[in-house]
Specification:
Layout: H1 3-21, H2 26-46, H3 49-71
């Protein structure tokens, strides 16, 4: 396994864990946003720009959800 693949595995695993647990804390929603950003970076580095673009959009959606949760 090369470094890029390991990075992608980490990003997607973090997305899975934070998404599964995000109902417990708004900070896990922020963690989901951060892991989506990592997934986006991975997609662009890998050359799969559609994946990178969709993950970037998910990052923005998750940041908006986190902001709304923090405002109450």
């Amino acid at each position: 396994m090369d470094g890029l693949t390991a990075f992608g595995l980490f990003a997607v695993s973090a997305m899975l864990v934070t998404y599964a647990l995000e109902a417990r804390s708004p900070w896990l929603v922020l963690g989901f946003a951060a892991s989506c950003a990592l997934g986006s970076i991975y997609g662009f580095l890998q050359g799969a720009w559609p994946f990178g673009l969709v993950e970037a959009i998910w990052t923005l959606v998750a940041l908006h959800r986190w902001y709304r949760k923090m405002r109450g």
